[in-house]
Design brief:
Layout: E1 16-17, H1 32-49, H2 57-112, H3 116-120, E2 136-144, E3 149-150, H4 156-166, E4 167-175, E5 181-184, H5 187-204, E6 211-214, E7 243-248, H6 249-255, E8 277-282, E9 294-300, E10 303-308, E11 314-318, H7 323-340, E12 352-353, E13 371-377, E14 380-385, E15 393-396, H8 403-417, E16 423-429, E17 445-449, H9 454-478, E18 494-500, H10 502-508, H11 511-526, E19 528-534, H12 543-546, E20 551-555, H13 560-567, E21 582-586, E22 593-599, H14 602-611, H15 635-640, E23 650-653, E24 668-672, E25 677-681, H16 685-688, E26 690-694, H17 701-716, E27 721-724, H18 728-739, E28 751-754, H19 766-786, E29 789-794, H20 802-805, E30 808-814, H21 819-824, E31 840-843, E32 846-850, E33 879-883, H22 886-895, E34 900-902, H23 909-916, E35 923-926, H24 928-933, H25 938-944, E36 946-950, H26 953-959, E37 975-979, E38 985-989, H27 993-1000
Parallel strand pairs: 1-3, 5-8, 5-9, 6-7, 7-8, 12-22, 15-19, 15-20, 16-17, 16-18, 18-19, 23-25, 26-29, 26-30, 27-28, 28-29, 33-35, 33-36, 34-35
Antiparallel strand pairs: 2-4, 2-11, 9-10, 10-11, 13-14, 13-22, 20-21, 21-22, 24-25, 24-32, 30-31, 31-32, 36-37, 37-38
Helix pairs in contact: 1-2, 2-4, 5-7, 8-14, 9-11, 18-19, 22-27
Length: 1001
């Protein structure tokens, strides 16, 4: 028998080629011209000279020609001999290459199909990968070789080389047992050959896939030790699984009562039609049943002939296995099957209630052990311990396999066995959150995270990293290297992080993979354990994570490769779809064990919750996201709703705007996942500079400004805040008063609020808009020295003029339409969300929810607004009115009891003369063009008359020589400018026609 040793990597089997036969050289012809040329020359020389000696040269031509022909033939024979020798050498090299390739091919064939002798000697371990019996080796003989030799043979030697290349000697000869194999010959040899075939089938075929049975008798008792299901040959076909039957009529005759060793054997015809796999042993060919596709006729230990349907008989050296070897191998295989718990499904229950399992394991303590029973195996309750077996676990299972129920049972068992102060759960579910709903209210649960968006994924990263830092600091504080070294006085519970649908989480947020890998590497000493569940973990979980997941659990999976990747066996892919909760576990010892997962019913969960309801709750490593609304009186309570641990609590993200006082005075709630807390958003103008709130319409800009103002009012009173609002005349007056440093409402002003800074001055006249922005710029520049802070809002950050934009030192960024706009405004793009509630945004690079502050009821003393008084003219006053509608305005004045004079081409000469006299009482009305036509009157009018202007800057410049801007008039309001002689320009309300008539009456 050829040994099945490892031949190593073979040469590249490229096609070979026969050496070409040397061509036959052409026979050299007689050189006629070379012979005739000397003769012709000699005759010509004789004719010229007349000397007979010249004819001697005629003889040289034939002599030289004959000599040349003989030499050419000699050279051709030499080349022929040299080519033949070269071809012989190349043929020898070809034979050597064919022999080497045959040896490589032979070794590869024996590696692919190990010999029975190598199997029983322990050189080949049971594979049990096939579901149906494969072809078996029945001996060594000549097989067709894959070596290719190209070329056309030209002689017998070439044909011999081609025939030798096509035949592979001492190769494994295979026979397919699907149509039966018969072994005929001396019983000792035939039974040895049948044993060899049976050993191969038992080594290759899964014990759960086929039932192997054999005839009774001492020769085949070793078959009963095999793990393959089945009994005697008579009962093998009773089951629904395929069966392989070995029939030996002579053995049954010998084993029967009164049987004689020399009795004539009867025909082996007890096989059934539904048993396609048969091995039959007989001493004579006539004793074989019909229908066997292969018959091996054995004549000696090294001689046998194989008969196949439709093929010529072939001589082989039969494969033989002795009874002692087969018995010893059967015992060894039975031990391997017992370790792997093959065929144990029949003893497992279909359903296991968690209440039926022990609630606590002897010696288990959460500081040193998390051992709990999670199901039932053949030996009894299956115990998993994240501390001893872990530190982490990997769970696989397709939809409907019971994966979520297994996770619930495991967590409930941990909650029953350990108090919340010693073990806590952080649950991450990417199936909507329903998977963990039954245990959400357990005191051990410190957080339930459902489908995340991008911003929440970033919170998860920061929170988990913060938890690792916190645990490191606790261990370092007491000088411990591992959680198991902590004393009872140290409050630090083990944290079990369970992620359902881990694959979906990593596909959406790859950055979480780095945090998971970090936890996998450092979790053992820090007391953080991962339980990662996925339908197909293969290729999803990183290698550095799987290397630390010693506990592997696989419920039913669809692909064999997934089962192999998780638990090292294909058993999980063979679990029936109607067996939810059936699983295979490898607890890190390389021993896959089948078990039935427990079910945590409502009573078990309720019992665990009631038993631990009064116990101390664990510290929360995961702070809840910010609420969608923060009321004015809710900030303090929300700041206290942190992690609940000794390092939890509130802080202020920046100092208060005015300092001093007790309790949080922030304008919003800041999320700080990297510190596992929330803080109050506060603004210190002395440090931060002026504040700009930016956000799209509806983002809560006005509310944010009111929240900021509420902080200042609470500290310094209502008069400390001024709001630029109301008609634009009031806004102009407020800017003018602030520019000259006048206090508002007689009190020290600390905060100026400007809403919609980018659009507030857009409708103003160009001159007034430019001056207002210039005054605000100067106010912002000098505000810190004056103790005045500015808080403004804008829809677009770039919509604020550049000079003003540079004056704001800090920004509160609310919702923006796109991520690009947020980044352009200086925000963190990773915190952008497409949908946000009003008041949600960013503050100092962190998420913030602004307090929903309401404006104080009643009048605000410092709210900058002014009432424009009506126009009142004394009787006999000297008045000059420039207007865009002189006729209509003249009628209004006439209705008020005055006698206006219209300037124009037909103006009254007496009235014009009166205008020229400084003391004359007259009311003149004209358009800018009319006043320009009487330019000679302007100096006197400017010095002696009260100037009224109805219109805009062109009308104002027509009469007023002062280049300074007049007060801004409200758009759409009946207002005008009034400038008394030697006085400043003021704003007045123009009377309506009806009001003027009533006053005249």
């Amino acid at each position: 028998m050829h040994p099945s040793d490892d031949a190593g990597p073979g040469p590249l089997l490229l096609p070979l080629a026969l050496p070409q036969a040397p061509p036959e050289p052409e026979r050299p012809g007689f050189p006629v011209l070379a012979t005739l040329a000397p003769i012709g020359g000699a005759l010509a020389l004789w004719a010229i000279t007349g000397s007979p000696f010249s004819l001697v040269f005629a003889v040289l031509g034939p002599v030289v020609a004959i000599a040349s022909m003989l030499d050419a033939r000699r050279q051709a024979r030499r080349r022929r001999r040299r080519a033949a020798a070269d071809r012989d050498t190349r043929l020898d090299e070809l034979r050597g290459e064919i022999s080497a390739r045959h040896e490589h091919e032979r070794r590869a064939a024996w590696r692919l199909t190990p010999s029975p002798s190598s199997i029983v000697s322990g050189g080949a371990q049971p594979a049990w990968t096939d579901r149906t019996p494969p072809p078996v080796v029945i001996g060594a003989g000549v097989a067709r070789s894959a070596v290719r030799v190209d070329g056309v043979p030209c002689d017998a030697r070439d044909r011999a080389v081609l025939e030798a290349a096509a035949r592979l000697a001492e190769a494994p000869v295979l026979a397919d047992p699907s149509n039966g194999i018969g072994f005929v010959g001396p019983l000792a040899l035939a039974r040895s050959a049948a044993r060899a075939a049976l050993v191969q089938l038992a080594c290759r075929v899964d014990p759960r896939a086929i039932a192997i049975s054999a005839s009774s008798g001492p020769e085949w008792e070793w078959v009963l030790r095999l793990p393959h299901a089945g009994g005697s040959a008579g009962s093998a076909g009773a089951g629904s699984a395929p069966s392989l039957r070995l029939l030996d009529a002579a053995s049954e005759t010998e084993a029967a009562p009164g049987g004689r060793a020399g009795a004539r054997p009867r025909r082996s015809d007890r096989s059934e039609p539904h048993d396609p796999y048969r091995l039959v042993v007989a001493e004579e060919l006539r004793c074989l049943p019909p229908g066997l596709a292969t018959v091996v006729r054995i004549t000696g230990p090294r001689a046998a002939v194989v008969h196949r349907d439709g093929a010529a008989p072939a001589a082989i050296a039969p494969a033989l296995v002795g009874l002692v070897e087969a018995t010893r191998w059967g015992d060894a295989v039975a031990g391997v099957a017992a370790q792997l718990d093959l065929g144990g499904d029949a003893t497992l229950p279909r359903r296991v209630a968690l209440a039926e399992l022990p609630a606590a394991i002897d010696g288990a303590h959460a500081r040193t052990s998390l051992a709990v029973a999670v199901g039932t195996a053949v030996e009894g309750p299956l115990v998993l311990d994240l501390v001893e077996h872990g530190p982490h676990a990997l769970v696989a299972g397709t939809t409907g396999s019971g994966k979520s129920e297994f996770l619930l049972a495991w967590l409930t068992a941990l909650a029953r066995a350990h108090p919340p102060a010693l073990v806590s759960f952080l649950l991450v579910d990417f199936k909507g959150g329903a998977a963990f709903e039954p245990i959400r209210r357990l005191p051990h649960v410190v957080g339930v995270v459902t489908d995340l968006d991008e911003a929440e994924a970033l919170r998860a990263v920061e929170s988990l990293r913060a938890e690792l830092r916190h645990r490191e600091s606790v261990l370092a504080g007491v000088g411990a290297r591992d959680l198991r070294e902590l004393g009872e006085e140290v409050q630090l519970a083990r944290l079990v992080i369970v992620v359902d649908e881990f694959q979906a989480m990593i596909e959406r947020f790859p950055e979480l993979g780095g945090v998971i890998a970090d936890i996998a590497a450092r979790g053992r000493s820090l007391g953080v354990h991962l339980v990662l569940a996925s339908q197909r973990p293969n290729g999803v979980v990183r290698e550095q994570v799987t290397a630390n997941c010693a506990i592997r659990v696989s419920l039913r999976v669809m692909q064999r490769v997934d089962s192999l990747a998780v638990v090292g066996t294909e058993e999980a892919a063979e679990i029936a779809p109607d067996a939810p909760g059936r699983a295979v576990v490898d607890r890190g010892d390389g021993r896959p064990v089948r078990f039935q997962s427990a079910i945590a019913d409502e009573a078990s969960v309720l019992g665990a919750r009631v038993a631990s309801a009064a116990l101390v709750r664990p510290r929360r490593p995961w702070v809840d996201p910010l609420p969608p609304r923060v009321g004015p009186d809710e900030l303090g309570g929300l700041l206290g709703a942190g992690t609940g641990g000794p390092q939890a609590g509130s802080a202020q993200s920046g100092a208060a705007i005015a300092g001093g006082g007790a309790g949080p005075r922030g304008f919003g709630l800041v999320d700080e996942p990297e510190r596992q807390r929330r803080s109050a958003a506060a603004w210190d103008p002395a440090v931060d500079g002026h504040l700009l709130v930016a956000g799209m319409p509806g983002s809560g800009r006005t509310t944010a400004l009111e929240s900021i103002a509420a902080v200042v009012r609470a500290e310094h009173g209502d008069s400390s805040v001024a709001v630029l609002e109301g008609p634009r005349s009031a806004v102009w007056d407020a800017i003018e008063s602030l520019a000259v440093g006048e206090p508002a409402a007689g009190s020290a002003l600390r905060l100026l609020v400007v809403d919609e800074l980018d659009t507030r001055f857009r409708s103003w006249p160009d001159d007034h808009r430019a001056l207002a922005l210039e005054r605000l710029e100067a106010l912002i520049r000098a505000g810190r020295a004056r103790g005045l802070a500015v808080a403004a809002s804008a829809t677009q950050w770039l919509g604020v003029p550049h000079a003003l934009r540079d004056g704001f030192g800090i920004r509160l960024l609310l919702r923006h339409a796109t991520r690009a706009e947020l980044v352009q405004a200086g925000g963190a793009g990773e915190l952008w969300r497409p949908v946000e509630v009003p008041g949600s945004g960013q503050w100092r690079g962190r998420r913030v929810q602004v307090v929903d502050a309401q404006r104080p009821s009643g009048p605000a003393p410092a709210r900058l607004a002014a009432r424009v008084p009506p126009l009142e003219l004394e009787p006999g006053a000297r008045v000059a009115l420039v207007t865009t509608s002189p006729t209509a305005d003249a009628e209004v004045l006439r209705g008020a009891g005055h006698a206006p004079v219209l300037l124009g081409p037909h103006a009254d000469a007496a009235a014009l003369a009166a205008l020229a006299r400084p003391g004359a009482a007259v009311v003149a009305v004209g358009s800018p063009e009319a006043w320009s036509a009487h330019w000679s009157l302007l100096p006197t009018i400017r010095e002696t008359a009260t100037i009224l202007v109805r219109g805009g800057a062109p009308e104002y410049r027509a009469l007023v020589a002062d280049r300074s801007l007049p007060p801004l008039l409200d758009e759409g309001a009946s207002q005008l400018w009034l400038r008394a002689p030697g006085g400043a320009t003021v704003r007045r309300t123009w009377p309506s026609a009806a009001a003027a008539t009533d006053s005249a009456v």
